Amino acid sequence: MAPTSRREFLDCVGRGMLVAGLGTSLSADLGCSTAFAEEGSDSLSFGKYDGLVDLLQSTPPDKLQPLLVDQLNRGGTNVTQLMSAGALANAEAFGGEDYVGFHTAMAMLPALQLSKLLPAKRRPLAILKVLHRNSLQIQELGGASKKTLRKLHASGRSTDGDVGLKIRDASRQTNLGEAEALFATLADAPIDEMFNVLQPVMQDDINVHRFVFAYRTHGLAKLLGDEYAYDILRQCVRFCVDHEQKRIAHNHPESPIRVLMPKLLDQYKLDGKSFGKRDPGDAWVDETGTSIYNGPAERSAEIAAAALAEGIDPEVLGEAISLASNLLTLRQGSDKWRTHGDAAGVHAADATNAWRNMARLAEAPYAIPGLIIAAYHSAQHAPFATAPYPLEEHRGTIRTTDAATLLADAEDAIRHNDQGRATAAIAIYGEQGHPLLPVLDCMLRFTVSEDGRLHGEKFFQTVSEEYHSIRPAFRWRQIVALARATASAYGYDRFDEHGHRAPGYEQACRLLGVPV
Question: pLDDT tens digits for 468-487?
Answer without folding.
Answer: 999 999 999 999 999 999 99
